[in-house]
Specification:
256 residues; 10 helices; binds zinc ion; WH_DNA-bd_sf
């Protein structure tokens, strides 16, 4: 609101209301700029960013700021920092591992509910199965068969759980959709832990699981997307219901 002009000196004073401002850290600004350019593909994989002192000269920022920005990019998996004479910050392509570790952090940091994991699996896995029936290669089928063989073996609980996860990831790989594949790989650790329940995984569960995997594999082999979706839906949903019925944990503990 404007105050009345003061008659003495003829100036008008305006009452300006300011809110607290948050100023981004210089290192975040530099990291954002570099990240954008890396993601736009300006620097091919494996090339080195300009050396630290050159970045200091180019940007007018301090050495500490430049170093901090590079460290942020390293944590995000966008560059690999090598020390020594031939060292520097080298551009890295974001791989599935970085999706996996972000999802892992999300699950561990936010105490994601077990039911949320099951809902996500029910959303993603039938689509993986449908695409797998359409796009699977001979190598994909061989990987599914291998997982089916090891799940049929009467191994330890750990071996059973691993064979289970391997099969589900192999279906995602066979979908030939890199994002679905990345998500499933990211979820695989949580899936393993969430099914790690000695009381639940008895020989009947093992048998049902092995049979379900086999019949879904056959639909994928036959190139029958409808059957693959339907069977995967039934399998993931049935498994979730059975686990929830006996499970007393409500969140997922993924070990570091
Ligand atoms: Zn399964």
């Amino acid at each position: 609101m404007a105050e009345p002009a003061s008659p003495e000196n003829g100036t008008t004073r305006v009452a300006v209301q300011l809110a607290p401002m948050s100023v981004p850290k210089a290192s975040d600004v530099l990291a954002d700029e570099l990240r954008e350019r890396i993601l736009r593909g300006e620097f091919p994989e494996g090339t080195a960013l300009p050396p630290e002192r050159e970045l200091v000269t180019q940007t007018g920022m301090s050495r500490a700021t430049v170093r901090e920005a590079l460290r942020i990019l390293e944590v995000q998996g966008l560059v690999r920092i090598k020390t020594g004479r031939a060292g520097g910050a080298f551009i890295q392509r974001l791989g599935e591992e970085s999706i996996a570790s972000s999802v892992d952090l999300l699950i561990r940091g936010r105490n994601i509910r077990l039911a949320a994991l099951h809902e996500t699996r029910e959303a993603i896995e039938p689509s993986c199965a449908r695409l797998a029936a359409l796009h699977r290669t001979d190598d994909d089928l061989a990987a599914l068969d291998r997982a089916n063989d090891s799940i049929a073996r009467d191994g330890s609980l750990g071996e059973f759980l691993q064979a289970n996860v391997d099969w589900h990831v192999a279906v995602a790989v066979a979908s030939h959709n890199e994002l679905l594949n990345g998500f499933m790989l990211a979820l695989s650790r949580a899936i393993y832990t969430s099914t790690d329940n000695q009381g639940f995984v008895d020989s009947a569960v093992r048998q049902t699981t092995a049979q379900a995997h086999k019949s879904i594999t056959e639909a994928i082999r036959a190139g029958d997307p409808e059957a693959a979706v339907r069977r995967m839906q039934r399998h993931v949903h049935g498994y979730a219901e059975a686990v929830m019925a006996v499970e007393d944990r409500t969140s997922i503990d993924v070990e570091a």
